[in-house]
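Structure ticket #2291
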Amino acid sequence: MTCPDFRQLLTGPGPIVTPVIHVLDRDQALANIDIALNAGCPGVFLINHDFPMAPFLPILRQIRAARPGAWLGVNFLDQPGDLAFPALAQLAREGAEFQAYWADDARIDETAQDQAAAARIARIRADSGWKGLYFGGVAFKKQRPVPPEMHATAARIAARYMDVVTTSGIATGQEADLSKIQTFRSVLGTAPLALASGITPDNAPRYRAAVNCFLVATGINLPGDFYNIDPARLAALLSVTRIHGASS
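Resolution: structure written out below.
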């Protein structure tokens, strides 16, 4: 198994699908990684929804050792890039390299000329030496609300500070307002855009022309199960995205 070139995939006829696995332990994570990769997903994101960052790190080392060639991204829940990038760089030095980091809040301030927080994160990222992709949350669920009239400004600023601008609906499992996604796409042009909430096999066709990457958990999980992928629902979502790619 070798890691795919995600930068190339993000410019393809997409959208690509990266399941989000709410990690409980090594074995549960590996089982779900295998479901996703065997279904044809190019990679997955791992998130510590139920425990802090510190106990997550040894689990990440175990997962990487068990799946050395898989494309794996990480979300350290509620931890911004100034903490995440040094941790990811240290993991890489130990031989546990991860290909992407997704932050719920990239610290973009659409009301300010000076993007001090985002710029500081960018400096720390560069100084850390970590080489992965940065998926930055902008106008994202459970963060400071961004009014719709400021979505374009937020997206325009964000494109300067991250590899993949990432947005969402108002809450986990809640689909995003289509006009919001269309605004982001119009501002970003051909730059990558990821959507990280509310995607299901049923509503994916509404978003697929505007989005390069779907980060999805509840929409493909077993009914009533926060932690485990339903292979049938994942297959249905992948079918939607592949049909779109073939017709583009």
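Closing remark: The chain has one domain: 6-107+115-247.
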